[in-house]
Amino acid sequence: LAFNILLLKSYLVVGQGLAGISIATSLRAQGHTVHVIDHANAHRASSVAAGVINPITGKRFVFSWRYFDFFQTAKTFYQNLELQLGHTFWHDRSIVRLLQDLNESHTWLSRSGFEEYRAVMEPLEGAASWQPMLKKHTAFGKLNLAAQVNIPLLCSVWREQGLNESWFFERQVLSSDLDTLSKEYTAVILCCGHQVSDFGPFSGLPWRHAKGTVAHLRFDTDVLPNKNELLKKQILLAPIPNQEGLYWAGANYEWQATDTAATEQGITFIKNELDNTFQIPYQVQHTLAGIRPVAQDRRPVLGASKEWLNVFIFNGLGAKGALLAPYWAQHLADHILNGTALDVEVDMARFKL
Ligand SMILES: Cc1cc2nc3c(=O)[nH]c(=O)nc-3n(C[C@H](O)[C@H](O)[C@H](O)COP(=O)(O)OP(=O)(O)OC[C@H]3O[C@@H](n4cnc5c(N)ncnc54)[C@H](O)[C@@H]3O)c2cc1C
Predict the structure, then answer these.
(1) Which of 155, 192, 259, 320 to mutate to test the pocket of ligand 1 (most atoms within 8 A of CB)?
(2) Is the CB of residue 318 less than 8 Å from the CB of residue 11?
(3) Ligand 1 close to Cβ of residue 45 (< 6 A)
(4) Looking at 8-117, which runs of residues are DSSP E strands?
(5) What does pTM read for this prediction?
């Protein structure tokens, strides 16, 4: 490959999803030249994601991993990009969590009683304002300090700027290019999502990528009470920013997938969930799917190849890229630029190869 745009002491980021955007922005913030290459994959996870940032996770309603460390970094990061790019990416949201049964209601009540959870979890309420939408009366808990990042918009305007300013190049990088690139750039950072497995030095890590199918839909009567609220049951229903009346619904997990076509299994999951929850008819406008890049322990994966010490990966953002990418990008940039040690929780050396 003839990369005729090369400079000494510059950095190359391969992949222009959330991981690539975040690490390129962090390196540039320290004054460095960064080139970005992406082979224009319309189904990258970042273009499919709802971009939801949710403080509470799991059946026991506990804080998401190191939530407050990551949340403020993420908010500042996206809002800085808004100033640079002239678009709104960050939307403060609350999440209405429909509780399935008495057991869930009980767990919610006891968790929300803890001092540290009070700012985030509101006590139980009847879903009165949601009732016209719902099939049966249900209790809900409300989560504050949530957000939604318009990741597809960020990817498209960031790419546009890169093309205009000639630091973004549309092409595919092959594993066999790494040797040349490692000599031409100060460092190469691979941010290739689930396609990391195409790169020899990193293909042997314990990846558990997870495909998810999504539907974009409209309700026949749009009576959702509050456009800043997302609805969460098994399924998540989120307004799509800037697209009046259009909602994102999804997503399931399929662990063996290699292609990015929406699946029957995923579409059935979404329809069953919607039909069991809502009494208002809806029309699915289209379906799509993406593959979340996930490592076995579901933590991010950062580190350098053994073969080329200046070839790094930034991967494993899983189902929480919007929250995790800005914090871990800064962490990786500090490691690359200043030699600070990687946090053992994300260092790829935790996997014994
Ligand atoms: C259905 C679904 C719903 C989701 N919902 C949410 C959510 O609500 N909130 C949230 O925080 N996260 C969500 N996620 C997860 C989120 O999308 C990911 O964590 C994040 O987007 C991963 O970003 P990435 O940059 O690592 O990968 P990707 O977004 O997949 O980007 C990888 C990029 O690398 C490029 N690339 C790969 N190989 C090469 C190569 N050889 N040469 C050149 N370019 C290459 C691809 O073209 C692509 O653009 C969801 C994911 C899915 C699939």
Answers:
(1) 192
(2) no
(3) yes
(4) 10-14, 33-38, 52-53, 56-57, 62-63, 90-98
(5) 0.95
